[in-house]
Amino acid sequence: MNAPVPPAEALRRSLAELLDGLPPRQAATAVERLIANYRGDTPTHTPILRDRADVIAYAAYRMPATFEAVHTALEALAAAVPDWTPRSHTDVGGGTGAATWAVTATWPGERGVTVLDWAEPALALGREIAAANPALTGARWRRARIGADLSLDDTDLVTVSYVLNELSERDRAALVDAAAAAAPAVVIVEAGTPAGYARVIEARDRLVRAGLHIAAPCPHSAACPIEAGKDWCHFSARVTRSSLHRQVKGGSLPYEDEKFSYVVATRLPARPAPSRIVRRPQIRKGQVLLDLCEADERLARTTVTKRHGDLYKAARDADWGDAWPPPAPPA
Ligand SMILES: C[S@@+](CC[C@H](N)C(=O)[O-])C[C@H]1O[C@@H](n2cnc3c(N)ncnc32)[C@H](O)[C@@H]1O
């Protein structure tokens, strides 16, 4: 029997097949229009994804990156709550369902999955792509508008990825409150920009006020030590570039780095990282410099040298976004 295809690969293949069905210039033109749209003032009144070509372009261009970013956030949740597996998942503003794929990559197997979005073409394409993932064949794709009256059915996990950006302040608050009321675990991902980080912090504060605690990336649930306007907390995920990326963006690199900000909040007993590496580690001769967000609510730089033995080896392997020190391997 053939080994099952990992979700990231199954998603890539499925998107490549869809693109094959479009005239080459059409997808690139749709992506260029979408990029212009997202750069400008994102409309909050009408769906941006209007038809199938828009949605294929969006999916092919953005889903692999969204998948990697959400997957990173979910792995941080799984590390903080290791004995837990969500039995149900609701993806709000889920579009073509990238986050549902990421959930199946973190916790394989079937569960009750619901994707809510107001854009019917996105839901339809999401359902079509999900046919390539056995864990998603039972997913429900429902049309729903995020607004002040939003209420969500109880579920184990709510994901909200790259959605807050498209909502008014009032609707962002309604969504975060509804997620906090519906689920013991909420994962929010936004672009890794100062504005994306600001929306994540706004949501983080609201989730803490609703009684959840922070499982990742922060080592604590107190206020973020970053001074607003001076810096922003974000991470990076490596994404294999598709031929569509090369067509739209040019360049020859086989990958690009998706920058994202995120927060994972939960009511479950969680063990957040002792501290988190918040910049790319700087490797010097005989030493590694790590910028950490620490459990005592401070940002601090630590230097790990050869004299630290195994810890030095771990520091050389450490990556931006990792917990520090790394968790001990299972006995
Ligand atoms: C940038 S896309 C992200 C889609 C998906 N979560 C992902 O990460 O790939 C934003 C999604 O939010 C949906 N959306 C925006 N405003 C909405 C609203 N008021 N009600 C429901 N869905 C909304 C859009 O239709 C779109 O699918």
UniProtKB/TrEMBL annotation:
Top-rank lineage group of the source organism: Bacteria
Record-linked Pfam families: Rsm22
Single Gene Ontology BP annotation: translation
Keyword Metal-binding: yes
Keywords of this entry: Iron, Iron-sulfur, Metal-binding, Methyltransferase, Transferase, Transit peptide
Database matches in InterPro entries: Mt_RNA_Methyltransferase, Ribosomal_Rsm22-like, SAM-dependent_MTases_sf
Gene Ontology molecular-function annotations: iron-sulfur cluster binding; metal ion binding; methyltransferase activity; structural constituent of ribosome
Gene Ontology annotations for the cellular component aspect, listed alphabetically: small ribosomal subunit
Keyword Metal-binding: yes
The protein's name in its UniProt record: rRNA methyltransferase
Species for this entry: Streptomyces alanosinicus
